[in-house]
Batch of 2 targets.
Target 1
Amino acid sequence: MKVDLNSDLGESFGRYKLGLDEEVMKYITSANVACGWHAGDPLVMRKTVRLAKKNNVQVGAHPGYPDLMGFGRRYMKLTPEEARNYILYQIGALYAFVKAEGLELQHVKPHGALYNAMVKEEDLARAVIEGILDFDKRLIVVTLAGSKVVEIAKEIGARVAQEGFADRAYNPDGTLVPRSRPGAVIEDKEEIAERVISMVKDGGIRAINGEWVDLNVDTICVHGDNPKAVEITAYIRRRLEEEGIKIVPMGDFIK
């Protein structure tokens, strides 16, 4: 069994520092780097790409809505043309730094409200995926495991990595419980690790109401902005390895 560990990084901006990028980077295999619209700036982007290179971590773009004030967590109504070009623009911005550091871009994972909206809006999902493929048809699209986006991406001809979330509770339909609801974010590292192992080995987890949810995951998201992010990420990796699960970049096994 193989699985990728990814984290959303490079989300500082100007004088504002967010996340524990330097420490979290030691335990992951893929980094989703903010592209400057929901977070990040040119200095942060290059620093994060260099950090990934130093730790032999694969780099992916993490584009979102043009919503710096709201950290990309506020829904915006976009036309398909807007969505496609917004994505292409942000990938291009990050790729400038990826190329400058002599690396290749592995994947694209939409951020926040855009990621969630794609699960519900097929036209939006299709436009975002088309924007990704406009840049490079080899790029892997990272999306919510079991969602309609997986089917759309495969239909278009994209490589797809189905994502599970280590510290988030799930609804019975496989969507994430909104952060505003009690119990949406799980903090106990033992519980988090058990849930991750269940996703990888058993193909699913229990939803917030106790129902079983099937999840065929290729990559697990570990959040780098949690105060205990480093401890939790290191523990997840150790527990997975103890279960005989190999931790490798998604690009090594996604066809």
Target 2
Amino acid sequence: MAAAERRPLTSRLRDKLIAHRGPGLHVAVDEGHGPTVVLVHGIASSYVTFENVIPLLQADHRVIAVDLLGFGASPAPPDARFSLDEHVEYLERTLAGLELPEPFVLVGHSMGALISARYAARRSSELKGLVLVSPPVYLPPDIVGDPVDRAAMSLYRRVYDFLRRKRSFTLRNAAVLARMSPIKNAFEVSERNWEAFVLSLQNAIETQTTVTDVAAVDVPIEVIYGTLDPFLVPGGLRIIERMRHVTVHRIGGGDHLIRPPMARVIATAVESFTSPAGSHREAGLSGGA
């Protein structure tokens, strides 16, 4: 059977219908041959988030990297609410248009991890595996029992509310952080993407369903994050870490950016899903706890 025929007919027909809904996301990278890997960046960024990952995968994989709705070179429709469902819908539309021939590995970073988890919860049959990198898993503070975690959840919400209300402050300090980043253009909050930033923050990160999405995924999941990541709350991570189909890898000294040590762990996680051996548990990821 030809490669394009490997997916069930119902899935291929559904994707054709989705692809006709309208324009999708900007596909910034579609290179290489072999098992397919799709890379989804986070808020206030673009495909350049993965600049340290892509070279590690290109030799043996087809690597696809998109710009999310409202970021990079992707469209920002004037009526967009930039909700988690809307981000997922545009990702579905884009991948449907590419007519991927077989199950692929989905990798999401930061907000992209939340989007990828929702996508995977809906479409597990299309995936070989899911890799969640630096996922900001937040819960409503009033349902968190641990007082430290509850305080942390509340603090993040107050900070995000402050950033939305203080536009000039946020834009000015975002520009400073962007200049300091070792990955050029990995962080951008500007007048151009302000609406996408504030609405994604509110409607995709603060209003999220990651815990239940991860629980609903039917393929193995690798979670990778740095021990010094300032955007992660231990309480949310502990819940998904204890799920049976989740394996966790902590990068000592790592922060929120995908620097070379984290990139190597991500590449190994991807290869564990796509290697001929077929057992990602046996791949032996380096750099984990």
